[in-house]
UniProtKB/TrEMBL annotation:
InterPro entries: Crypto/Photolyase_FAD-like_sf, PhrB-like, Rossmann-like_a/b/a_fold, UV-DNA_repair_photolyase. This is Cryptochrome/photolyase family protein. Pfam families: DPRP. It comes from the Bacteria. It comes from Ferrimonas gelatinilytica. SUPFAM superfamilies: Cryptochrome/photolyase FAD-binding domain.
Amino acid sequence: VHTLRLILGDQLNAHHSWFRQQDDGVLYLIAELKQETGYVRHHIQKLCAFFAAMKGFADALEAAGHRVRHLTLDDSAQYEDLPALIRAQLQESGAQRFEYQRPDEYRLLAQLSDLDLPVAVRQVDSEHFLLPFDEIDAHFERGKAHRMEPFYRKMRVRFNLLMADGKPLGGQWNYDKENRHRLREVDWASVPEPLCFANSVDDILARLERHQVTSIGTLEGPLLWPVSRAQARELLGHFCRHCLVHFGRFQDALSNQAPHHWSLFHARLSFALNTKMLHPLEVMEAAIDAYQENDDVDLAQIEGFVRQILGWREYIRGIYWANMPGYEQHNHFDARRPLPPWFWSGETRMACLKDAIDQSLQYAYAHHIQRLMITGTFALLFGADPDEVDAWYLGIYIDAIEWVELPNTRGMSQYGDGGLLASKPYAASGNYINKMSDYCASCHYEVGEKVGERACPFNSLYWHFMERHREQLANNPRVGVVYRNWDNRGDEERDAVLERAQWCLDHAEKL
Ligand code: FAD
Ligand code: SF4
């Protein structure tokens, strides 16, 4: 062996140029590591999905003629951390070169960059993202506010996706206005049954137990997430056939009544993408092909989907790298409260939060608008410490890796970065949730009330938040206007609302 090449758990890219040639002198190392199971408390399905996908990738590489060393937790327990493992493997194999793909997380990049090894070291690109790493600085400046839309338009032109003669297909860049529908009962029949796999992970579960890895959430029966490229491709095909047709239309819809309401028309491809089993271009191209072949899929649906991957996903990564390290410390509103305990149990009488948290515990998944406007907005209004909020999101979701979790959580949902990523905080009262969901009809609380024991907590917390942060928000042109409405109410009414909010803040565990 002359070269040892490291493959991290989110680098399962079968099309990486590394694998174009077989070379018996190259040893690929894929290892389950205790340090990766413990930097945050992960969902049990997330632990199993990563380990199963890593094992599958190791087997596939071996079958393709490469030399692979796959280490389980049992094999790697003797090494304190990743650097210790690498040193030992270099020694054991006799390799004179060490190569790795640049990690997408700052934490791992720092660990690998700091390695002081007695052999030649080479870092290569992970060949996954569309915007080359070296170009991030040209688009994103540290500490400066950016907006997604101009970035997205540049990417559309650059990659020539949904373009015609240099102009956006259909003449518009954005179809968001047509895409904000509530899901009504008449639409229920069109909600597709989600494609769930049945991967056996008993051996992984036994290992996690043996090594006393603590986790959150549940796993009943086999693992439903895709853990191989073949399964990931199958899920992509399922999305193109059954979900794309209404993807944009219902992407902001929320329900606890509709069939399959935990997944609706969402792709659930984030795990396959973030582990790099799928390439973003391949995903978008498959969806665009489906749009072209199927008259039922209109432009607003495919544009909405391309926007998420070509726009948001790449934009989020740009914000992350332009601002790391340091982004993880922003706390614009100086929020310090611990999250209420029901974030880990779902035991709350608020129907919206119960639904979002229950399904997160059950599936390690919630769709975007649940993450943003239910758990996220609650944490924002409540004044939850962004460190806690980050740890919760980073642990619970199947797709949570810091480069994508942190800007979405601390930036987009908590406005902790003071507007580097988004133009305003996603603060909203129960009215928004009621407009987009069927939650409120089955809730213990009254969405139309602001005061009293049964008043929807979002309503009073919203005004408490706005009052608390008047100084930071009143000058924001997208937010300031709401103060006029609030200030026009009598003192008595305002005091009663703030009093109800204070009760909610002081008794959050009872909500
Ligand atoms: P769909 O709704 O079907 O969208 C398709 C794809 O678009 C997704 O698979 C994803 O790759 C991409 N996408 C859409 N929105 C975003 C976004 N805002 N940022 C990045 N990619 C996006 N996404 C993660 O991958 N990991 C996270 O840890 C994560 N944490 C989040 C935390 C908060 C508070 C919020 C508001 C959003 C977070 N997101 C995260 C973004 C988004 O919610 C998920 O990507 C999406 O819900 C994944 O489900 P899906 O594959 O069904 O997505
Ligand atoms: Fe959520 Fe309020 Fe509606 Fe209940 S009434 S579901 S707490 S928004």
